[in-house]
Every structure is written in structure tokens, then in C-alpha cells.
Amino acid sequence: MIGFKLKKDLEQFFIEDIGCTDLSSELLFTGDTKAEAEVLVKEDGIFCGKDVIVKGFSLIDDQLSVEVYVEDGDPVHLGEVIASVKGRVSSILTAERVILNMIQRMSGISTMTKKAVETLNSKHTRICDTRKTTPGLRMYEKYAVRCGGGFNHRITLDGGVMLKDNHIAQFGSIQKAVAHVRARLGHMTKIEVETGSEAEVYDAVKANADIIMFDNCIPKDAAAYATLVPDHIVTEVSGGITLENLAFYQQAGIDYISLGCLTHSVNSLDISLRMKGEVE
Q: What is the pTM of this model?
């Protein structure tokens, strides 16, 4: 994870959460009151967010002692202690919520991605994400996808050209649009074309797109469309695919399956912080 961006984001998240001060902790505990807390997993899953724990607590109080016992991408289990923190009680409790919110969401995404990879069970087809991410959290959500064994689609709009149905309808045709873009595009950037019919797949092949996406395509049609695409063009299927129907695409011969559900409708992994014993 990018250190300086994580630091900047955590600062903003803490400002949003704390306001001027943590009244509860400030009124209950003096600055010298110290204790130990554990970060506890309350369901099985895939962990993600080690740097968030370490950098988050240190931003609030650089005197806190933090240990994380797992690495990003590791499986974790119900009742497992994945981290501990020692130091000022007020600092631990002030930092708690933001850190838990982030690692719960990131671990939930890693867990769902791992399930998707295992459900598809393909040595050829890769699972990837989309841009359907939470504003402000894209870096963390896409990192979590990688920790779960998936791959990233575009990170940002300038990461590649993707000509969707609205682009093509407005410009006139797939071949015209691809030719127009390619004449103005640098050699490092790829062009992907979204298609929804056999005729559009043929047009995208004639245009020599780098990637052809089959949009909202059932497994049978996806497999048929894939046979129309030469090997040097990457294929992708997207739209309407869930963990429930994902396995039906196993034999479709597609290079990538992109799943918006990995980030837009995932359940956070249940993780909590528990204080140990009485304060000192």
C-alpha cells in the first residue's frame, strides 16, 4: 500500500471521526492510564489491512506498541487474535473505530474475492474488479481484491481506453471509434471495446481492439463469442455475474471475468477490538 497516501487518508478519516476531541476517552482516562487491547476476528475469512493497523495507531499516538500477527492475504478464523496494541487507553479507544472500519471492509473484499476465485476454479480465467468502488477508498478496495487472489481492472479512467455502448452510439460505430482513438493514443495504453452481440464482436475484431468485453452475456453466448476472437485479443465478460452463477463460466474460454459485486455489495468481515483486564 502507498505509505504517504495511506497517511493522508487516515488523517482525514480521523478528523471526520474525532471532531475536536474524543470526549468519552478524555473524560474517563488520564493521559497516563495504560492498558493492552487485542484485535479479534469473529468469523472466518481472508485478512487485509496490516498497514492500516500499524499506521493508524501510530498516527494517533506514536508511543503505542503495535504487533500484527498475520499478513495481508492470510486466512483468519473465528476467535483468532490478529493484533495487539499496548499504551495509553485514550489513544487506543480514539483510534479504534476508523481502523476497524477499514480493515473490516478490506478483509470482507478479500474474503469475497477468494470465494470468487475458488468458485470459478479456473487455471485460465482470472477474476478482476471494476470501478464500482466506494469514493475515497478505491486504492484500499482494489488492494484488497489483489490480496484475495483477484486482479485489478482500470484503477482510474486514464488507466486505459474503454469504449462502452454510449461512447459507440454517440460516435457512430466501433470501427470508427477505435480508429479515431488509436490515432491519438500513446503506445503504452490499451483499448477495450464493450460488445453485446455477435455483430459487435465481429466489428471489434475487425477494429483490432486490444480487449473485447462481452457485456451481460450468458455462459453459452460468451463461449460462442470467444471462438470469434483471435488469440492475440484479450477477452472479458462482465455484467450480471454473481457468486451464484460464476461457476457456469468456467468452460467459456474467457480470459477475465470482472465482478462489480466484489466491491459494491460486499459484507465486511466481523472484527472487533477488546480491552484486556483493568487499566493501569
A: 0.94
